[in-house]
Amino acid sequence: MRRLWLIGALVLLIGPVVTWSRFLEHHDIRRRASPIDAAQPTFAAYWRFLDEARRFVPEGSSYTINAANGDEETQLFMISAGLFGGVRPYPATFVWAPQPGGGREAKYVLVYGSAGCPSDATMMRLVKGGSICIRGER
Q1: Which of 82, 84, 87, 109 is deepest in the core (most CB within 10 A)?
Q2: For residue 74, how many other CB atoms are within 10 A of its CB?
Q3: Nearest partner of 107 among 95, 94, 89, 125, judged by Cα
Q4: pTM value?
């Protein structure tokens, strides 16, 4: 009788095991590094860069973003608005158009990818995905 109960319990567990194994074959449930990893890998790379850079930009200072093109600068700037509270933004490009001043007023220049630091930057700190260039007093 005991053996019959054990066999019956195992038969009942086969269904959920098969269902979960099929589910896990088609769904990626790993922990994400950013809120948008699964949906937008490009934006996730932007998020990781900005999250890393945020630690080096102090409250009350200012920043701008340099990237390879206006599209990247605009996307990075829009994402940074949510991560850089308490820091004054000076966009070099906004809504895909160069802005007056081009971000020259900012003390910290967040450089995404391989774009270079501005010539007036006195220090550079490397972060994952780019670098942070620090200008003299602003």
Answers
A1: 109
A2: 19
A3: 89
A4: 0.73
Locate the domains of the chain by residue range. Answer: 41-135
Q: Which residues contact 68 (CB under 8 A, 6 or more apart)?
A: 112, 113, 114, 115
Q: Can you give the length of the chain in residues?
A: 138
Using only the alpha carbons of the chain, give its radius of gyration: 24
Q: In 3D, which of 115, 123, 119 has the Cα closest to residue 93?
A: 115
How many beta carbons lie within 10 A of that of residue 132, not counting itself? 22
Q: Which whole-number Å values give the CA distances from 29 to 4, 22, 37, in the listed order? A: 36, 13, 12
Alpha-carbon distances, residue 106 vs 18, 86, 87 (angstroms): 57, 14, 10
Cβ atoms of 52 and 125 within 8 Å: the answer is no
Q: Which helix (H) or strand (E) holds 123?
A: strand 121-127
